[in-house]
Amino acid sequence: MELYLVRHAQTDENKNQMFHGNKNSHLNQTGRCEAKYLRREIATISFDICYTSPLIRTFETAMLLVGDYVEIIPDERIREREVGNFSGAKIEDYDAEEFWDYSKNSGRNGVEKVEDLYKRCQEFLDDLSNKYKNEKILIISHSSVIRTLHRIITHTPKNKKVLIEIENCCFLKYQYK
After folding, report:
1. Alpha-carbon distance 177 to 131, whole Å?
2. pTM score over 0.70
3. How far apart are CA 105 and CA 91, in angstroms?
4. Mean pLDDT, consecutive 10-residue segments, the chain of 177 residues?
């Protein structure tokens, strides 16, 4: 099957370099423009289904991209990583080295442990591969989930650092079995 991963379009929290974790945030004007631009770029792809996080920013992105012709299914397993006490904080206050280190598996300050994030993303992909074979599946989620899905799909070892930039409305394509 073909998997197409998209990070939701921009929100005000993204613009201000702040974590919003599982807080519901709407797209801002820039985000709506980003999604409309991406829609034109992917217009030739015939998606069979679209999965989103249940958070509003992913659903709004999905509606702008494919809402008029593809079924959109929310799935809790691709919800944003819980950032605990960092919700509303500046991104620079977050220690990515600590919270993305699989050997530490830190849950300090209420941050979802990276192993728990990995597990739910793996379960999501396992379910997709059991349900679909040759379909084109659009997945709209968040940077932490997309980073984790990338790691799983590319078989990147957990002890290897992954420095993949996940911008708003980024578009990544993978073959997955």
Report:
1. 11
2. yes
3. 19
4. 98 91 94 98 97 98 96 98 89 83 91 96 98 97 96 91 85 93
* DSSP three-state, residue 96: helix
DSSP string, 114-175: HHHHHHHHHHHHHHHHHH-SS-EEEEEE-HHHHHHHHHHHTT--TTS-------TT-EEEEE
Which long-range contacts does 146-154 make (Cβ < 8 Å, 24+ apart)? Answer: 146/5, 146/7, 146/170, 146/172, 148/114, 148/117, 148/118, 148/121, 149/3, 149/5, 149/78, 149/121, 149/124, 149/125, 150/5, 150/174, 151/118, 152/118, 152/121, 152/122, 152/125, 153/3, 153/125
Size (the chain), residues = 177
C-alpha closest to that of 135 among 80, 77, 73, 68? 73
Say which residues have a Cβ less than 8 Å from residue 132's Cβ, sequence separation at least 6. 1, 48, 49
Mode of pairing for the β-strands spanning 136-141 and 72-74:
unpaired
Enter the tokens of residue 138.
Answer: 């659009």
3-state SS class at 38: helix
d(CA 49, CA 115): 27
